[in-house]
Write a structure and sequence with these properties.
The protein has no helices and eleven strands. With 120 residues, it is mainly β. The strands form two sheets. Strands 2, 4, 5, 6, 9, 10 and 11 form a seven-stranded mixed beta sheet that branches. A four-stranded antiparallel beta sheet has the order 1-3-8-7, with no helix packed on it. The N and C termini lie far apart (40 Å). The relative contact order is 0.32.
Length: 120
């Protein structure tokens, strides 16, 4: 089973940008979808965005789709979440995940998580 290592995150002011990365311990299978979920303080975990390892097709939650992008580096088995125009409501613990589908919760591997704090 692959392992995921979250990195990046930290503190930002509203309107600024941050980039998260997720390194995969082995070449993902072609059918694997990778992405991020987040858990805001006091709230349930929610889908952020995902990318198909095979096709590169991406999906995003409505709350972030015009501000966040996901890219992949096949040579490094790494994906990146570029977060632009950060808002205070983006404050959460972000975790990378891997599985059949992140948006439907069909994932069985996730990283250790990284904290993102956005101040208004």
């Amino acid at each position: 089973q692959v392992q995921l290592v979250d990195a990046g995150g930290g503190w930002a002011q509203a309107g600024e940008s941050l980039t998260l990365s997720c390194a995969v311990s082995a070449q993902p299978l072609g059918s694997t979808t990778l992405g991020w979920v987040r858990q805001p303080p006091g709230k349930e975990r929610e889908f952020v965005g995902s990318i198909s390892w095979m096709t590169g097709a991406t999906q995003f939650a409505d709350a972030v789709k015009d501000r966040f992008t996901i890219t992949r580096d096949n040579a490094r088995n790494t994906i990146y979440l570029q977060m632009n125009g950060l808002k205070s409501e983006d404050t959460a613990v972000y975790s990378c995940a891997a599985g059949l589908s992140i948006i439907t919760g069909e994932y069985d591997v996730w990283g250790q998580g990284t904290q993102v704090v956005v101040s208004a």
